[in-house]
Here is the input.
Amino acid sequence: MGLTKSSVGMGAVDSGLIIKKQNPGDKIIALAGNPNVGKSTVFNALTGLNQHTGNWPGKTVANAQGYCKSEKHSYVLVDIPGTYSLMAHSAEEEVARNFICFGSPDAVAVVCDATCLERNMNLVLQTLEISSNVIVCVNLMDEARRKKINIDLEVLSSRLGVPVIGVTARKKKSLKKLLDALDRTLEQKGEKTLFKVKYPSEIEAAVALVEPKAKRLSCGKINSRWLALKLLDGDPSLIKEVSACLGEDFLKNPALFAAIERAREGLKTAGIEGDRLKDLTVSALVNAAEKICDGAVKHEKKQYGGRDRRIDRLLTGRLTAYPVMLLLLAFIFWLTVTGANYPSELLSRLFAFIGDKLDTAFNALGAPLWLHGALIDGVYRVLSTVVSVMLPPMAIFFPLFTLLEDAGYLPRIAYNLDRPFKGCNACGKQALTICMGFGCNAAGIVGCRIIDSPRERLLAVLTNNFVPCNGRFPMLISIITMFFAFGASGGISSLLSVAVLTLAIVLSIGMTFAVTKLLSKTILKGVPSSFTLELPPYRRPQIGRVLVRSVFDRTLFVLGRAASVAAPAGLIIWLMANITVGDNSLLSLCSSALDPIGSLMGLDGAILFAFILGFPANEIVVPIIMMTYLSAGTLESAYGLAELRDLFISNGWNTVTAVCFIIFTLMHWPCSTTLLTIKKETGSLKWTALAAAIPTLIGMLLCILVNLIAKLLF
Here is the structure.
């Protein structure tokens, strides 16, 4: 769903190499693992933090750190991004590799999925090539038992030469074994007999030529065998990191340079160069993983995962995938729309009652009128409207959407959307950034780092804002409820409003595809790249954790952000309504100036001005519209959906206005946070300006088109 204030642990560091110790004696432990193995769950359980766990690859592209203690040591745990390999091909893989190689962790705990251990073993073997202090933490042992998978941890430990422990991260008590293993590993003295991957003889000979020189020059900072292998490969990003770690003169050493050249000549003579070297290296790792797990991991002849495959036939089938996606989306919206009305009315009555008491208190204290107006009519009215209108739909929508994420459905959405993105000459990983954009567009922009190609990454950045974030959802739901479901008798009107909201989301996603296609055919031409997407097993959602995370980590966070912006905005609007130039207030002058453009778009000047003032956060657009209308004295108080609807209708709103408002809500400039994130990610004012201009121009044109069609027909 996206990043929030509390979802990045003690701190997320892009470089992954800045560690904050509480005490000088703290031991630094890297938590590594494939995506979706429960690595962040282990991190949260040990540190007591709330690093958000995403059920798809690439959710995290920075390191989070927290603290915990065992009986003998205190630890700084660093949750590095999930990665399948340390042969970095994406941003998250680079961050993970760089921290393990150059971050000097005291130990590395590799978290593995017990239900697919052989595949996870690839990362374990690569980590063993770099560090001797490794602990293999086999998570999800409960799921393995349910699938009749038996794992002999002692055999695995003896073969690898490192501790192998089994845990169920959801049960915090089982993680004591991990801390005990860390204590034993850090106290162990002397050389360790670790499993060594055997590469083809030609590669081993080449490594033997380079390793002595690399060992002498690296001074023990980096494993010399691994370093020699990587120098032969010549990965530019890794060479850059090695130079930063060991100094620029390292690769300029004549003896090392000559050894590398001789080794490469020998490989070339054997027909091993370029991708062939990579293929043989990967094959050796895969074969070694099979050898390690052979006999130690057993499962019954009955095919496990059959239930998941049957569900996938429905959720990812050629004929059923898209209808099921729409139905699930519509069902979530239906529950949100129908469930938000009554709580919203209760909250509006409560805040109206409190407002009356505040009025009485201010009058009794003899407070000046300007202070009463600024604090009550300005700040309090906007704040109370934000809470009563936004809180109920968010409190329903976020938990429902999080349940789908927790159960493992969001990766299926990405899988289903891969083909359309390929048709747009874009990367299928863009579907993952769309899912993140539903939570927060700024988080979706950061998530674009998982896309390897700069061109495709830029496509995803420029189009992410077409997906409505959690700040725009309550606004959409409120307007649709007021104009399409208000006063519904039975379920017909509610179903109609759900259909409108679903169509709006389909429109936003469709526009994402259209603009991506247009950009890929014009200023960002190119061929789509390939990527690996894991479909994780379906899991029973943790209802308690989902509710807590949705309410405190998302709903209240978004509401708090909206309130922090709404309070000063309410004060500014009140001041603009009460500062006059001639016979007109500043507010009416600004709104009137925008009226011609607003009327052309099927809106009005007050609505456009609200969108402009809502630049810091989309959540305050509706309250600003309310305050603008109230300054004209059309209604003395408006808190709930019923009063808001009456207020809007009295100021000229109709169905066409609501439709145009929905379109412009979906397609206008990103909020300030998102634009700052785009500037940071692209490093370009040009691309940042384009990211703001594209949705705005398209939104304006669509609104004008809808308004003209409505006038012609009606």
In short: Residues 592 and 605 are 6 Å apart (CA to CA). The chain has three domains: 12-187, 201-271, 321-713. The longest helix spans residues 321-364.
